[in-house]
């Protein structure tokens, strides 16, 4: 049941073994597994041997047991085990699915532990490693700020209060100046735990607080809840800013970010391209709406592959896309969009029934206008010219190289 639920709901490949001997064979393949769920009853090993073997494999271990009495509790507490889940209790399968997902995602999350006490730091860092995080340690506020600048994957900070040089509150205040709550979760930690200190932590921008000494269970719950919230915010942001069909930024996101990209390109020029699939209604009418959706996705993928990191691309609506490319003007802009047009025209789009279709796009380009709206309006007008001129072409205004313009002026 566990294998089916985790496999189906998370799409993770799972291997089921029924003896420690089989587990040994499987785990001999380095890097193949990231998580172990184990029972305590196997034909060829006693519970202690099972736990000792798996906890020595360097990956998170979750015990799924039919019994959770005092003797089991002591065995689990004495070892580096993420959790012990009672089988056959309501919600245990859902909890295991959540746990597997959380531990899988943790592998891509950086966590930073800030504490001047080496023993406290090692304890918290060890617990975070047990839950699969990529852990960085810092022994002062200054070292923490450096670590954050160096490792953009850090999304969780656990900080002590009393530290020489910069205390935990000051560190949080500085962190919040650059890292908002939707990007970074901060948990304060202190032995004092007085009500005013907890409030101070929260007011300075901490998301949560842990009293020292903490229990591993509470530590894991609070850490998980905080990273779950970050994931949730990320999902909501994606829903609000990404186009559902193609995963490209949507029109709203384009206008949110577009002004910034336009400004960034003011010195070296900026090109706006409006791209529209040719005779798209015909594709829908001939092959069906689902094939039309596949075609839109294929064009979106081609656009995503073509753009550079500094560019901004979006699905503008229906079968229309927009690309804002800073630093491009004249012939460079023409080459850039011409190459995109040619790529799309040469790209076969495989349909589920085995057929393959080709399509073309028309692109209108503007490389000079006062303001983003004016650029888009001109690119749109050029798109109309491209359609009227026979489609499958790039039309643009101001797409002459700066050097060519100079030559022209000299001749005049
Ligand atoms: N499958 C699918 N079709 C869509 C989607 N959005 C818009 N359309 C269809 O896209 C078609 C757009 O057709 P038109 O604007 O008439 O233009 P066209 O056929 O592409 O022809 P030209 O632009 O003149 O080359 C319409 O039939 C819309 O219903 C979508 O998300 N999926």
TrEMBL record:
Ranges where the Response regulatory domain occurs: 110-227
Sequence ranges assigned to domain GGDEF in this UniProt record: 268-399
Xref: InterPro entries: CheY-like_superfamily, Diguanylate_Cyclase, GGDEF_dom, Nucleotide_cyclase, Rev_trsase/Diguanyl_cyclase, Sig_transdc_resp-reg_receiver
PROSITE patterns: GGDEF (PS50887), RESPONSE_REGULATORY (PS50110)
Database matches in SUPFAM superfamilies: CheY-like (SSF52172), Nucleotide cyclase (SSF55073)
Enzyme Commission number, as recorded: 2.7.7.65
Catalyzed reactions per annotation: 2 GTP = 3',3'-c-di-GMP + 2 diphosphate
Family annotation (SMART domains): GGDEF (SM00267), REC (SM00448)
Gene3D superfamilies per record: 3.30.70.270, 3.40.50.2300
Positions of post-translational 4-aspartylphosphate modification: 160
Entries under NCBIfam families matching the protein: GGDEF
Full protein name: diguanylate cyclase
Species classification: Bacteria, Pseudomonadati, Pseudomonadota, Gammaproteobacteria, Lysobacterales
């Amino acid at each position: 049941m566990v294998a089916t639920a985790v496999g189906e709901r998370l799409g993770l490949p799972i291997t089921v073994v029924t003896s420690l001997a089989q587990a040994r064979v499987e785990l001999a393949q380095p890097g193949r597994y990231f998580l172990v769920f184990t029972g305590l009853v196997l034909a060829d090993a006693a519970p202690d041997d099972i736990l000792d073997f798996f906890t020595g494999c360097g990956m998170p271990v979750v015990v799924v047991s039919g019994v959770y009495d005092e003797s089991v509790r002591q065995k689990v507490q004495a070892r580096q085990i993420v959790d012990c889940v009672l089988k056959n209790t309501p919600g245990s399968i859902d909890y295991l699915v959540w746990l597997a997902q959380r531990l899988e995602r943790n592998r891509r999350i950086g966590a930073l532990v800030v504490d001047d006490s080496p023993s406290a730091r090692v304890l918290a860092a060890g617990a975070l490693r047990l839950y699969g995080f990529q852990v960085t340690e810092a022994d002062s506020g200054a070292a923490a700020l450096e670590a954050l600048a160096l490792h953009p994957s850090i999304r969780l900070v656990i900080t002590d209060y009393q530290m020489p040089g910069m205390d935990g509150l000051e560190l949080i205040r500085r962190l919040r100046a650059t890292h908002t709550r939707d990007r970074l979760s901060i948990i304060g930690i202190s032995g004092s735990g007085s009500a005013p200190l907890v409030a101070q932590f929260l007011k300075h921008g901490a998301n949560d607080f842990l009293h020292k000494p903490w229990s591993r269970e509470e530590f894991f719950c609070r850490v998980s809840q905080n990273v779950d919230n970050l994931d949730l915010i990320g999902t909501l942001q994606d829903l609000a800013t990404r186009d559902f069909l193609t995963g490209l930024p949507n029109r709203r996101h384009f206008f949110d970010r577009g002004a910034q990209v336009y400004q960034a390109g003011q010195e070296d020029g900026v090109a706006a391209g409006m791209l529209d699939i040719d005779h798209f209604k015909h594709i829908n009418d001939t092959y069906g709406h689902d094939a039309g959706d596949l075609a839109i996705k294929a064009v979106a993928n081609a656009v995503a592959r073509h753009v550079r990191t500094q560019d901004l691309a979006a699905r503008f609506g229906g079968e229309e896309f927009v690309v804002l490319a800073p630093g491009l003007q004249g012939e460079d802009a023409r080459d850039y969009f011409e190459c995109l047009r040619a790529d799309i025209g040469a790209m076969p789009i495989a349909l589920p029934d085995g057929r393959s279709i080709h399509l073309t796009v028309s692109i209108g380009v503007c490389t000079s206008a006062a303001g983003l709206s004016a650029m888009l309006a001109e690119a749109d007008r050029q798109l109309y010219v491209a359609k009227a001129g026979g489609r499958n072409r790039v039309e643009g205004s101001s797409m002459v190289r700066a050097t060519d313009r100079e030559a022209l002026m000299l001749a005049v």
